[in-house]
Amino acid sequence: MLYPIGIEMGDETHAYGVIVPDVPGCFSAGDTLEEAFENVREAIEFHIQGLVEDGEEVPLPTSLEEHRKRFAEDPDLQYFTFLTVVNVDITHLLGKAEKINITVPRHLLHKIDQFVAVHPEYKNRSSFLSRIAADKVFGVATA
Question: Could you tell me the residue range of the domain that residue 87 belongs to?
Answer without folding.
Answer: 2-137
